[in-house]
Amino acid sequence: VPPAPRFSAANMSVVEHVREMASAGLHSNVRLLSGLLLTMSGNNPELFSPSQKYQLLVYHADSLFHDKEYRNAVSKYTMALQQKKALSKTSKVRPSTGNAASTPQSQCLPSEIEVKYKMAECYTMLKQDKDAIAILDGIPSRQRTPKINMMLANLYKKAGQERSSVTSYKEVLRQCPLALDAILGLLSLSVKGAEVASMTINVIQSIPNLDWLSVWIKAYAFVHTGDNTRAINTICSLEKKSLLRDNVDLLGSLADLYFRAGDNKNSILKFEQAQMLDPYLIKGMDVYGYLLAREGRLEDVENLGCRLFNISDQHAEPWVVSGCHSFYSKRYSRALYLGAKAIQLNSNSVQALLLKGAALRNMGRVQEAIIHFREAIRLAPCRLDCYEGLIECYLASNSIREAMVMANNVYKTLGANAQTLTLLATVCLEDPVTQEKAKTLLDKALTQRPDYIKAVVKKAELLSREQKYEDGIALLRNALANQSDCVLHRILGDFLVAVNEYQEAMDQYSIALSLDPNDQKSLEGMQKMEKEESPTDATQEEDVDDMEGSGEEGDLEGSDSEAAQWADQEQWFGMQ
């Protein structure tokens, strides 16, 4: 007589073994065994009971999901649900021929609701949002768990079904009143901060050290209404509290708000603080990389991109940062590819849409660029840079009327601040009839914020047209008193040349190039001055050029040809 088995595992059915391995996370083992058992079941339908077949299909589908084979997983989940329907028609579970002990139908069966949730996850990974909504909509409201309501809310929001999205977010908060992302979802859909706060008031009052939550909700209500100043002040008051000091999420939000308000210096500072606290931080690093690139710090951008790729290449941010490096290095086709890759990873990445839109615009594909900027506006209606990109496209295609309508709408929607005033003035400068209006708008902007660089640049452009160089010099010196900016130093150099202050102009060009070594206009201004300083040498050079058939122009043509060859080689990067 053989000895009695020492382990209870010997008395388990083979399906129970599969279930144990699945709960232990042995996905590759589950996939192999369940695949073999399903083949056996197909060859002998009586081998396993309906409930066992259902379990095997679910566990096999789960293992496929873990291996990211989403389409195959959906197929198996669908078969499992069909098997479940057949099972529900049978009141009793038939015992399987190969197993002495059978599990009662009511016990240990995977939840049908969970199966549908997993199917919805597969559909979202396959970018089939309509199918995901359909499968979750089929679950009765009372049976929906918080995670199902959260997924539905996000899917509804993405599909533009705002009312349904609000209902689902509220249901999440009813079940889990501290679901902060659901709170942000409601605020982003224009639900009043007071109404959202009322849904959390009971838990705030019953749990100690949660008094900050009502202020947090108030802060993000300001964020989503576009009131950047009050949002910054409220988050700063939170951040100063000892218990929330050095919170990376709050610092990231502050950095983003400073960026939206046009305060790039403070934005970079806050991003750097957040990065020091969390060296693996990814969120917001796309905006940080863009700001560094705009300042001409391309080496820092390249290093940031490499670091982010080492953290994760499955997020949009590292691709956007590398794209910014390419864009500001004037490699637009590569920037286009990198932007497209980022959108592929995250279709809601506003910075990726702006990058791709800017690359398309600079490549002369203005209509395609307009589509991307419009999508960015849909996703971030309070971000001015989205509107700026669209208006630049309109101006590039001489659609001044459309640009004026858009600028006026932004002015009315986001309010009269230095940024919206400057944006409207930028469009007015394009039409000779509205020059005086542009001047008035710029004066208002500079009264509000004398250091706002874009307003200073546009006012300088206006003064240059009127040949009021002394006024321009005074304006630029005043703007540079408390900040240093490459463009402002370069324009000051241009104005100084106009009033024959050559030495100081040379100094300004040098400062501009020290801030951004890639600034071509500063380099051209400096080279032009160097030629004018030695007219005899310049005349001799011109004579030689004439004798040699304009050799200098030939060099320029050669460099264009070389650039064209590089562009041809990079065409494969271009993604539609």
UniProtKB/TrEMBL annotation:
Key words of the record: Acetylation, Cell cycle, Cell division, Cytoplasm, Cytoskeleton, Mitosis, Nucleus, Repeat, TPR repeat, Ubl conjugation pathway
Region (Disordered): 524-576
Annotated TPR repeat ranges: 350-383, 486-519
UniProt subcellular location: Cytoplasm, Cytoskeleton, Spindle; Nucleus
Annotated metabolic or biological route of this protein: Protein modification; protein ubiquitination
GO cellular component terms listed in the entry, alphabetical order: anaphase-promoting complex; spindle
Annotated family: Belongs to the APC7 family.
Predominant location: cytoplasm
InterPro entries, A to Z: TPR-like_helical_dom_sf, TPR_rpt
Gene that produces this protein: Anapc7
Record text on subunit structure and interactions: V-shaped homodimer. The mammalian APC/C is composed at least of 14 distinct subunits ANAPC1, ANAPC2, CDC27/APC3, ANAPC4, ANAPC5, CDC16/APC6, ANAPC7, CDC23/APC8, ANAPC10, ANAPC11, CDC26/APC12, ANAPC13, ANAPC15 and ANAPC16 that assemble into a complex of at least 19 chains with a combined molecular mass of around 1.2 MDa; APC/C interacts with FZR1 and FBXO5.
Signal peptide, first to last residue: none
Biased composition (Basic and acidic residues): 524-534
Role description: Component of the anaphase promoting complex/cyclosome (APC/C), a cell cycle-regulated E3 ubiquitin ligase that controls progression through mitosis and the G1 phase of the cell cycle. The APC/C complex acts by mediating ubiquitination and subsequent degradation of target proteins: it mainly mediates the formation of 'Lys-11'-linked polyubiquitin chains and, to a lower extent, the formation of 'Lys-48'- and 'Lys-63'-linked polyubiquitin chains. The APC/C complex catalyzes assembly of branched 'Lys-11'-/'Lys-48'-linked branched ubiquitin chains on target proteins.
Pfam families, sorted: TPR_16, TPR_8
Keyword Cytoplasm: yes
GO biological process terms held by the UniProt record: cell division; positive regulation of mitotic metaphase/anaphase transition; protein ubiquitination
UniProt feature, compositional bias: Acidic residues: 539-560
Taxon lineage: Eukaryota, Metazoa, Chordata, Craniata, Vertebrata
Name the record gives this protein: Anaphase-promoting complex subunit 7
